[in-house]
Structures are given as structure tokens and as C-alpha cells.
Amino acid sequence: MALSDLFSRRRKEHAESEAGASDAPVHPTKVLARFIAGLSSRPHPVILDLGPSVGSNVNFFGEELGCKIIVEDLSKDVDRHIRDGLLEQFPTFLMKRFPQETGSIDGILCWDVFDYLDKKSAKALADQLVRVLRPDGVLMAFFATSEPQQGFRPEYTRHVVVDKLNLQHRPYPAARPKQRPLPNRDIQRLFEPLRIVEQFLLKTNLREILLRKAPEPAGTAPVSPSA
Amino acid sequence: MWKRDEAVKPTSGQPATPATAASTQTVSAPTAVQPDVRRIERDIVNIGKSVVIKGELNGSEDLTIEGHVEGRIELKDHVLTIGPNGKIKAQVFAKAVIVLGEVNGNVTASEKVDIRDGGSVDGDIISPRVAIAEGAHFRGSVDMQRKGAQPQPGQQKASSSPQPEKAQASASISTPATTAAAH
After folding, report:
1. Which of A14, A133, A162, B31 could serve as a FRET partner for B167 with CA atoms 20 to 30 Å apart?
2. Mutation test of the interface with chain A: which of B144, B150, B157, B159, choosing the one with the most A Cβ atoms within 10 A?
3. φ and ψ at residue A69, rounded to 5 degrees
């Protein structure tokens, strides 16, 4: 066997194990393509990813957008606070969690992190995300619409991008189950002053939302009183 | 009564050496195969488990680290492998970096960074290609600029800036100079 054949076979095997060798189900997504479109005009966007680090996602966004990705896995923080019995301090922790400068992030991938937070923590997190998002920046989040099932072992979901229209949902053990789903108006209030620009309710009972921060007023010069 | 093995016939007039002394004779009486073996040995350098280095590490050959290194590692055109026992607290610059151990610091590679299962990186990565295995730990940022893209003004500063305290539980970042008001 030629050496190049061996290498190409290894590459193929590696790619399969990264992208789709897992039996986890693949679900369609409507909002991811919009999220990418919302950032594609930026020369070198900065993305904040609140999910676990997924190598193929890093490559996907890197190739699509030529971006910088900051991975801040919040599930580990949730687990740590539960393990240490400090869950009531989680909202305070979240308020200091993000060292990023105000208005420095072009896009935020929240995935389904809000499903695992109580209302106080969700508000603290949303406030921080609104702060770091730059004007005209976009935020993508998923929300469950059905009550969490009791009696099942709690799980997080690792969202692996298959392509712009499909995500593989890979479960992994969680210390906390999903909380009660948030109604639509609560989601709107949570992220004020961001505006919901796209919203999809999928057959999987998942609500996909894309929010955008209002762009800065054109020009920095004050508007003349006569205008 | 024993047939002489023709394959170990000495070259360049050197006397034949008994097999028992092979280990001591490899340098003085190399066989036809030995130069290749030595070349491979020369190209892949190991820093063993018990070695601790503090300071700057520069090189012009591939390197595997199984020990501890603190400071700065620079292998501009070569591959750096952090073995499973390797612990690095340093800024790393290489052509390609393969991580099976622990790295605490920023990693800059001109070709690829590969964090394997069991590998851990706490720091910012700048590389056109990044692979992170499922069992790997990574906390920080990944900067994969498109080919031909100019680096952002603050970027070099970011890559050489020290990591924040773990208590802050986040990775360092430098963003473009635009710090628009949020509200």
C-alpha cells in the first residue's frame, strides 16, 4: 500500500470519528445559517462559544468566518457549583465570569445553556452577554419548550455542527437537569434591549432564536437640532 | 563448522565485530542500516520525564517533551509534541504542535495545533488548523485567520500576554480596538 493511501485513510478515519461516527441523532437547524450570514460581512469576527469545546465546530467556524473563537464552557461551571454546594452564588459568579471588554464580541453561541439555569442566573448571564456583544452583533440560543422529563439521568447536549443546516446532538452527563422552560415573553425580557430577529419552533420542541443588538447610530457626530 | 554471516561483513576495511559487542560498536563500525536509524534518532529529540527546564527553548528539529518546561518554546519550522507526561507552562511557537499532556500558555502554530484525547490546553491558540479531540480539555480562544488575512493590531500582544488567574475562569483575549458603548 502506498504511503499516501495510508495517510488518506487515516485522515478519513479521523474525520469520521470527529464528525459523525457517533450514533447521536442529527437534527436540522434553521438559525445557524442565519447566525453565520449575520457575521459573514465582518472581516475577522470574534465568537464567544458557551458550550463545551468541540474541535470540528472550531474548524467549521474558522473556515466559514475566519474568526477567533473564545470557548467558555458554562456547563463545567454549573457542575462545579453544584458539586461544591454553591449554586445560590452562581448568579454572582456569572456577573464576574466574563473578562471580555464591553462591546467586543461579534457573535455568541449560547446553544441550550439557558435551559439549565434558574431565572436569577439566567438574568445575570443574559446581562453579561448583552454587555459584551458589540452593536449589530448576533446571539444564537436554543430553548426547550416542553417540560423536562422526570426520572431520567440529567444530560447536557454537545452540539456538533454537521453543516449549516444540521447539528448532531451528543448527550453527556450533567449534574443538573433542565429547568422549567421559559415562555417567549420572558426570553424577550431576559435579553432586552436585544431584538429577536429570527425565531423557529422545530418539530423537536426546540425553540431556536437569533437576537441582534441594535447597531450604533450612523456616525458619532451628534444630530443637529434643526434635523 | 559455523557459516560466517555475509551480511555483517565490515565496510571500509573495518574489522568484523562480534555480535555481543554490537551496542558499543554502532558508532565506530556502522552497518549499511545504521546511518538511517541514527538520522531518525537525530531528528526526533526527547526531553525526558525527569527533566525540568526553566527559560527559553529554541530548536531547529522536531521535539518531544515528556518533562516540565516553563518559559518559552520556539521551534519555528518543526513539530513540537507534548507527550502524555509533559507539562508546559510557556508560550509556544512551532510549525505544528501536538498535545497529549498539559499546556498552560498561548500556542502559536504556523500549520496546525492538535489536542489529542487526554491532552489539555489552557490558553489562546493561533493556528490556521486546529483539531480538538473529544476527550481533550481546552479553555481559551482559537484564532484561525483565513489565509492572507492580516493579523489584528492587538493580536500579537494577546498571544504574548500572560494567562489570567484560574480563579477568573476564562481565557485571555484581545479584541479589536473598537470598544463601543454597550447601551
Report:
1. A133
2. B144
3. -115, 130
Q: Which residues sit opposite B131 in a β-bridge?
A: B114
Give B-chain residues touching A98 at CB under 8 angstroms.
170
**CB within 8 Å: A53 and B169:** no
Taking an 8 Å cut-off on Cβ atoms, the answer to whether B175 and A46 are in contact is yes
**Distance between CA A98 and CA A132 in Å, rounded?**
8
Report the first-to-last Cα separation within chain B, whole angstroms: 97
Give CATH superfamily name and number for A41-212: Vaccinia Virus protein VP39 (3.40.50.150)
- Residue B140: φ, ψ to 5°: 150, -155
CB spacing of A99 vs B178 below 8 angstroms = no
Torsion A17-A19-A20-A25 (CA) sign: positive
Segment A116-145, tens digit of pLDDT: 999 999 999 999 999 999 999 999 999 999
> Residue holding cell 501536538?
B98
Interchain pair A44, B129: CB under 8 A: no
Please state, in angstroms and rounded to a whole number, the distance separating the CA atoms of residues A227 and B23. Answer: 92
Q: Grid coordinates 486546529 are at which residue?
A: B130
Which residues of A make CB contacts under 8 Å with B? Answer: 14, 18, 43-44, 46, 53-55, 58-59, 62-63, 66-73, 77, 96-105, 130-135, 193, 216
Neighboring chain A residues of B136 at a CB cutoff of 8 Å:
53, 55
Of A28-42, A212-226, B99-113, B167-181, the range with the lowest mean pLDDT is: B167-181
Mutate to test the interface with A, among B108, B134, B137 (most CBs of A within 10 A): B134
Q: For residues A124 and A113, what is the distance between their CA atoms, to the nearest angstrom?
A: 13
Q: Where are the domains of chain A?
A: 41-212
Q: What is the pLDDT of residues B14-56, one digit of tens each?
A: 433 333 333 333 333 334 444 444 444 556 678 888 899 999 9
Q: What was the pLDDT predicted at A5?
A: 55
Contact A71 B180 (CB under 8 A): no
Contacts of residue A88, defined as CB under 8 A and 6 or more positions apart, other chains included, come to none
Q: Report the pLDDT value the prediction gives residue A205, as an integer from 0 to 100.
A: 86
Q: Whole-angstrom distance between the N-terminal and C-terminal Cα of chain A?
A: 76
Q: What confidence category does residue B159 fall into, taking pLDDT thresholds of 50, 70 and 90?
A: very low
Instruction: Calculate mean pLDDT across residues A203-227.
Output: 73
